[in-house]
Design goal:
Elements: H1 8-11, E1 24-32, H2 35-45, E2 49-54, E3 59-63, E4 71-75, E5 81-82, E6 88-90, E7 100-107, H3 111-123, E8 130-133, E9 137-143, E10 149-155, H4 160-166, E11 174-175, E12 205-215, H5 218-229, E13 232-233, E14 241-245, E15 251-257, E16 265-273, H6 276-288, E17 295-299, E18 302-308, E19 314-320
Parallel strand pairs: 1-4, 7-10, 12-15, 16-19
Antiparallel strand pairs: 1-7, 2-3, 3-4, 5-6, 8-9, 8-11, 9-10, 12-16, 13-14, 14-15, 17-18, 18-19
The chain binds fe (ii) ion.
The site of fe (ii) ion has 6 residues, from strand 1 and strand 7.
Amino acid sequence: MRERSTVELYDHLVVRNPVLRPRRLGHVNLFVSSLAKAREFYSETCGFVEIFEEPLITAAFMSNGNTHHDLGLIEASTTDRVDKDGKVLISAAQRGSKASLNHLGFEMDNEKQLVEAYENLKKLGVKAMRTIDHGLAHSVYMPDPDGNMLEFYADVIDDWRSFWKDSVGKTVTGGWQPALEGADGKPHYPDSFEPDIHPSSPIKSRRVTCATIATSNFKAMLDFYLNVVGLELLPGSDARHAILAGTTGEATLRLQKVEDPKNAAFSNMGIELGQADTLVAAKAYLRSKGYPIQKEENGDGQASFLTMDPDGFGVWFYAPTTNSH
Ligand SMILES: [Fe+2]
């Protein structure tokens, strides 16, 4: 459910020199109806390692080394979540009262680039922005024209594993005032990684790479993601389905046209597995556990299938197909 359409926020913008230009999708942050069930699915079943939890907001963060978290999972609640000083962290009246997208997190190259983008958005008249210091990253939040919340963040430290370890039991989030003077122009995102997969998990997930948003407002949404965010259209896109990439060139966001605005929402995420044989094993395991396999696709050097998490969010697992010569 959306409080109101935010399309008017961007109606006045004519931007043909995209301001944000993120590298890629870094994480998907979801409100889930049961954190226990989401943990069981994403960690014990899918193999993501839980690296941090915030009991105050009933939240878990998961990563296999791709970035500081690929998944943020927060239990939905119909009451406000408050911190130890009584300050409202998540107001149930506004959002998070049922399973839904909290936000999509897009990784920027560096803090200086993020601050420059923030300043340019302000000059263009974009007012609906919030800025947060997460300790390991600085973030700018703003909604897309449909009201899906987006986070654009730049990592500000290299060693996020130590940061999580040192932050147990502490409040790590605070306000951030973006300033060009002193902004760090050095990238801190991980260059590469060896996946550190939950050892007993039957599914060997490497990372979350892509999110799909269903929209009845396809043209305005595509315009926003191309010309304000600065993603690039990839081959295979058509008038009902856009495949978009950040500066790494990898598919990072899909827009899917739907007719009924009631069906406009975050739809699914893409999870990369290492090898085609792990895909076969993952499919068999999910079937044996009663998870539906809704679609299967093969082609363009990869095989994939779609299943549903406990809240009905779609999960596409995919893996490269190997040529057997
Ligand atoms: Fe986030």
